[in-house]
Design goal:
Layout (H helix, E strand, L loop, with lengths): L2 H11 L15 E6 L5 E6 L4 E6 L24 E7 L6 E6 L6 E6 L4 E6 L6 E7 L6 E6 L6 H14 L11 H5 L4 E5 L4 E7 L25 E7 L8 E6 L6 E5 L4 E8 L13 H7 L2 E9 L8 E8 L11 E7 L4 E5 L4
Antiparallel strand pairs: 1-2, 2-3, 3-4, 5-6, 6-7, 7-8, 9-10, 10-11, 11-12, 13-14, 14-15, 15-16, 17-18, 18-19
Length: about 350
């Protein structure tokens, strides 16, 4: 066998192979999303349900659950099992999105004009709805989470103060202690032409239980319920329904697109009215994070796909030789024109 034949066989081994069919939904599937580790897959459908599937092979091979020819798997149909079927939405479920760090938290957006946050109960492993985000005046087409990569250091710096002073559940200021323990925010977009950002209100810490023997409870606790509030709305640029929104996990920017064919990029910056006369504490990062923030439009494209609607948009790392840095990102859009387009965004 010559070298070219060997290379051809190696290329064949790198091709994608059909792995498994997941069946269960009664109608068309609108969205799917992998959990951070790839262990779980969430799907949603016009049948008003959200399904969570577990990859049984992912821990022993790869994050996409494909067992591969050398894994020893006997049957591809055994690679996944149904973990939960969530049916509390009152309309078609349009989008699902996993928490960026947690395998046990998921958000879903629906035709019923609401967003639901789901969590797995630590005690019994059952999944349930812990919060409903209400306020949109139309179908919520898309939901996404804020990343945690760029905020962990600031959060850790504030956590010492929170542990010492306790959390004020009514403190919703940008510099409040609540921000340190509320976790990543959620962004949503809707038929009502608005993009809204939601933040979880932290719970007041409960006192430690009294010492002594305790009788275990068989009643499911309601303590996992969460309260979310609308923190802000992004500047309104879209003239029709907004179908897709994505929050960059690296740069912290948000991009949106929809029925009007526009692409808009937003960035959270220090407010022009921020008080810059603060005492110099010697901690520039902490002082910067204390300034009031507001979202501003930093990039905008009209008729990005000509006269056609844009159905989906997302962020991706830039891989070509024209990139200015290893962290540079591009925006990818898909439209009714059947095209996929890549857009560069000025990082200034």
């Amino acid at each position: 066998m010559n070298g070219s034949e060997e290379a051809g066989e190696e290329d064949d081994e790198d091709d994608y192979h059909f792995a498994v069919v997941l069946e269960g939904h009664d109608s068309e599937i609108k969205s799917l999303c992998w959990s951070p580790s790839g262990t779980y897959l969430a799907t949603c459908s016009r049948d008003k349900s959200v399904w969570i599937w577990e990859s049984l092979a992912s821990s022993s091979n790869n994050t996409f659950g494909y067992a591969g020819p050398s894994s020893g798997a006997d049957d591809d149909e055994d690679n996944y099992e149904t973990v939960a079927v969530l049916q509390e939405h009152d309309g078609d479920v349009k989008c699902v999105a996993w928490h960026p760090d947690e395998e046990t938290c998921l958000a879903s957006a629906s035709y019923d004009e609401g967003v639901r946050v789901w969590r797995e109960d630590e005690a019994d492993g059952e999944w349930g709805c812990v919060a409903v985000l209400e306020g949109h005046g139309g179908t919520v087409w898309c939901v996404d989470w804020e990343g945690t990569q760029g905020t962990q250091q600031t959060t850790a710096a504030r956590q010492d103060r929170v542990d010492a002073a306790g959390a004020d559940e009514n403190d919703t200021s940008d510099d409040g202690q609540a921000q340190a323990i509320s976790g990543p925010r959620i962004v949503t977009c809707s038929d009502d032409k608005t993009i809204r950002i939601w933040r979880r209100k932290p719970k007041t810490p409960k006192p430690a239980p009294a010492a002594g023997p305790r009788i275990p409870s068989i009643i499911r606790s309601a303590g996992q319920e969460e309260e979310w509030y609308e923190e802000t709305r992004l500047p309104q640029r879209h003239e029709r329904a907004i179908y897709s929104v994505a929050w960059s996990k690296k740069m912290g920017r948000i991009v949106s697109a929809g029925s009007d064919g526009m692409i808009v990029v937003y960035e959270e910056k220090a407010s022009a009215e921020a008080d810059v006369t603060m005492q110099d504490s010697g901690d520039n990062e902490e002082r910067e994070s204390s300034k009031p923030k507001e979202w501003k439009v930093v990039f905008e494209v009209q008729a990005a796909h000509g006269v056609f609607e844009i159905n989906h948009i997302c962020w991706s790392k830039r891989w070509d030789r024209g990139k200015s840095s290893e962290d540079e990102e591009v925006v990818i859009s898909t439209g009714d024109d059947g095209e996929v387009k890549v857009w560069t965004v000025d990082n200034a």
